[in-house]
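Journal club prep — side note

Before the paper discussion, L.F. wants everyone to see what a predicted structure for a comparable chain looks like in token form. Sequence:
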Amino acid sequence: MICGLALCSCEAPPSQFSAKSTLAVNEVRGRVLDVDVNTSMVKVEILACGKELQKEWGGVSGFEQFFAVQPGDLNLLNLKSVFRASTRKTFTPARGPGYLLSCVWPDDRSVRIRVNNVNRLLRRDTLSMGDSMIRSVGDTLPPFALYDQDGEVLTTDYFDGSVTVLNFIFTRCSIAEMCPASTMRMKKLQTLAKQTKVPHVKFLSITLDPEFDTPGVLKSYARAYDLNEQNFRLGTATKAAIDDLNRQFGIFRKNIENLPLDHTMRTMIINSKRQIIYQFPGSHWSAEDFLARLPEGVEG
């Protein structure tokens, strides 16, 4: 099945870079000093910037700059002070000509190292499986680390002490019966589980489009679908990590320049021991069927 995919100019998430990596010409690394929710503006201490920005601003670091921010990214920068982002010129009602942040990623060094280390384990695990191996019912999840819609690191610890419904989507999918329908089923299942008092249930949607689906984009997506984020997380990471997860779970994705994203779908139930206990390939799964298969209790 084909899903729509627009082009994106985002740089890769910071976990793909070492501390010594150079920034792209229009990239900035900064520390948030103040957030103005009313005007959607942030004041930032510049820690480093790309060559074009150095010429425009007359410096490399140690000065302050104001930026306009989109709603999902504003949420992120309210929570995470150190970030990495692309910039472009814009006009803001609050300050006139200025700059807009986009493709915003949290960039705390210690967190970046942690994410890198976990996803190195994922890479090794993926290579050890071979091309023909796909995780199925009875298998245990591999180690992985994602950023969720609030910029928090989400690892396989997320699955402990709960039963989790896991699927793969991407926010720009425009085919109604694919990702949008899958998200609506996840939302319906979440509501049914609450109504029937199924205990310790969580939901996780992992993006297929990490180069566009930053934490802020995922936050806007969650808000657009009015998801109950108390137990519903959306995850993103570097393309390399997402590729490894796609391979391990049998999600086939094809990117062709200027053409839509072609991908398969799979929805799974994961128990508290990180084991797959049920899976449904394709997009036509039923919230009622999954509800009936959710364990009534959580094993210790």
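L.F.'s comment for the group: The CA atoms of residues 130 and 287 lie 33 Å apart. Keep this in mind when we get to the figures.
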